[in-house]
Specification:
Structural class: alpha/beta
Distance between the termini: 24 Å
Number of helices: 11
Helix content: 25-40%
Shape: globular
Order of helices and strands: EHEHEEHHHHHHEHEHEHE
Largest sheet: 8 strands, mixed
């Protein structure tokens, strides 16, 4: 089985619609794909309607979190999307995205970049606006060559000249909320140091004690040394190890299925979840 548990659609900051994403996942030879848009479950219905035969969909979301001043992302899988407390927290984070993006545009203008809110809003479309949309605007203007090049201290990385903080959930609260909604939690790309400061291992141990299920190890932002270190940490803490593409369509170079999760780990995730269940493809529409 080929299992990719971390992808994004136009419901947040990917370039494939949810329907296109699942069709592309099937064409890429995946058996299971996780739809984990930022702080939203809006893409579920469209993805399910288009799900091709032979492909199973794992519903999820990538939650924006912060601990001791460090931003981090928490992947939440197979939770009840209508559970009131978790829904309210996701909406709180989502509602902060527009004023934050507007503030980043204003900072870029102060730095002499001719970006406009209308340009960023056009790029975001119906998705949850975020830094990748602002980064895409910088690429369009020729300020940086790629989206990844916008995530530096010169521009949009944490602490960067145009960075603006947003509402982010404490990871322990995210774990509690997701668990209460019947879901499973995995710390996304914990060693992605190119994005800025990373969470120390001592904090990951505290999250494990609070109920964290796993950490994402095989990811494009982790070099071989980081993967070895994280695997050792996961074994020490009794955490599941996942691998995922973090696919964003044409916004990033990584392809669907470039990094995958072991079938036994996927099985354990589905066994732990009680809020929702994987959806098998019925041929799509």
């Amino acid at each position: 089985m080929r299992i990719d548990l971390h992808t994004h659609s136009t419901a947040s900051d990917g370039t494939d619609s949810p329907a296109e994403l699942v069709r592309n996942a099937g064409a890429a030879g995946l058996d299971v794909v996780g739809l984990t848009d930022h702080d939203t479950s809006r893409g579920y219905a469209e993805a399910i309607d288009a799900l091709p035969a032979g492909l199973t969909l794992v519903t999820g979301a990538e939650m924006s979190c912060r601990i001791d001043g460090v931003s981090m992302h928490m992947l939440a899988y197979l939770f009840d999307p209508e559970e009131p407390a978790l829904l309210a927290e996701r909406e709180l984070v989502r509602d902060d995205r527009v004023p934050r993006a507007r503030a980043m545009v204003a900072r870029l203008q102060e730095l002499g970049v001719p970006v406009t809110w209308e340009q960023v809003a056009r790029i975001a479309g119906e998705g949850s606006v975020g830094r990748p949309h602002v980064a895409t605007a910088l690429v369009e203007l020729g300020v940086v060559p790629t989206v990844n090049d916008a995530f530096t201290v010169d521009w949009l990385a944490d602490g960067g000249r145009a960075h603006v903080a947003k509402h982010e959930t404490a990871p322990f609260e995210a774990i509690r909320l997701v668990k209460a909604a019947g879901g499973v939690t995995v710390f996304a790309h914990p060693g992605a140091s190119k994005r800025g400061r990373t969470v120390p291992e001592s904090a990951i141990a505290e999250m494990a004690a609070a109920g964290l299920d796993g950490i994402e190890v095989d990811h494009m932002d982790h070099d071989d040394e980081t993967r070895v270190r994280l695997r050792g940490l996961a074994k020490e803490l009794g955490l599941l190890v996942t691998g995922s593409s973090d696919y964003h369509g044409s916004r990033k170079s990584v392809q669907l299925g470039e990094y995958t999760t072991d079938p036994e780990v996927y099985g354990e995730i589905t066994r732990r979840a009680t809020g929702a269940f994987p959806v098998p493809g019925a041929g799509g529409v």
